Amino acid sequence: MKAMMFNDRCWINSYSMSHYPDILTRYCEEILKDSGFTILSKIDHHFEPQGYTCVWLLSESHLAVHTFPEEEKVYIEMSSCIKEPFKEYLDILYTENLDVWYKNEIRDR
């Protein structure tokens, strides 16, 4: 396998996703499965008084999310070493009716 990584970073403006981690994690897991990624494990943490972070370890790399409820924002970062599920992930994420602003990258080393 060639050493190549596909990365996407985006912010989502969403009250429900930033305040209700269950909605956010369900949404992310659906996108990962629908894109063809294989979820190996998940670890998360709820901050006090508010905030949430979660990381999914994938057989193809990882997805991380962080919430900022005080600003109603969610930060999502995806890294994949396989192009096809990554492209499918982008197609799903950016065709959803969400307020998303982004920057994605492809790194070849």
Describe this structure in words.
The protein has 109 residues and is an alpha+beta fold. 30% of the residues lie in helices and 47% in strands. α2 (21-35) packs across α3 (83-95). It has a single domain (4-100), classed as S-adenosylmethionine decarboxylase (4-Layer Sandwich), CATH 3.60.90.10. A six-stranded antiparallel β-sheet has the order 2-3-4-5-1-6. The longest helix is centred in the N-terminal third of the chain and has 15 residues, at 21-35.
- Distance between the terminal alpha carbons, to the nearest Å? 12 Å
* Mean pLDDT reading: 90
Helix content: 25-40%
Kindly state the number of beta strands: 6
Q: Which architecture does the CATH hierarchy give at level 2? A: 4-Layer Sandwich
CATH third-tier fold name: S-adenosylmethionine decarboxylase
How large is the radius of gyration? 14 Å
Largest sheet: 6 strands, antiparallel
Quaternary organization: single chain
CATH homologous group name: S-adenosylmethionine decarboxylase
Estimate what percentage of residues fall within beta strands. over 45%
In the predicted model, the low-confidence regions spanning at least 5 consecutive residues are none
The strands making up the biggest β-sheet line up spatially as 2-3-4-5-1-6
- The CATH C-level class name: Alpha Beta
Q: Helix/strand-derived class? A: alpha+beta
SS field, number of helical segments = 3
Number of domains: 1
Note the run of SSEs as H and E. EHHEEEEHE
General form: globular
